[in-house]
Fold:
Amino acid sequence: MRSDRAPLTAALLLLIAFPASAQDRPPLPEGPQQQTLARAVMQGPDGRPMGTIAFAETPNGALVHVRMENVPGDGHGLHVHENGSCDGPGFIGAGEIFDPLGRAHGFLASTGPKMGDLPNVFAGADGRVEADIFTDRIRLDGGASGIFAPGGTSIILHESPDDYLTQPFGRAGLPIACGVIVPTTQP
Structure:
């Protein structure tokens, strides 16, 4: 195994061994539910389309489907951000990583992770990213841990892998793609 992927392996083992406790997650509504969906159309700093990231609510959290192209090869940090904006240089309008509870960034941080922290994704030599991620820290609603809260949320892909510890973004480097997360009815 390559040593530069050791933080990823450690983070995945931590997630398996220490999943978020039930008290950190809001309860799901009672009764049969229609699946809630969301999508972010990802764009580069120059406005160039780079793919989509889709979200699907499950009884235990959210599935995140990443389908992007024209991404430099290797690992990239991925975070849900607190504002529904990709405005400004470096997508500064997106704000900080989403976390209304005020936790620290990173799966390896003793007081983390933030709700918007997601595992790194990897682009192949062809520039394509295809990843399916599960998170039990966010919901697709307007509640405290919901990504449809007033002001919305966005998602950012960074130029380098997240180290899952360093504040505020895990040394993931500059943002290379951003998309505003919006509800949708289409899978």
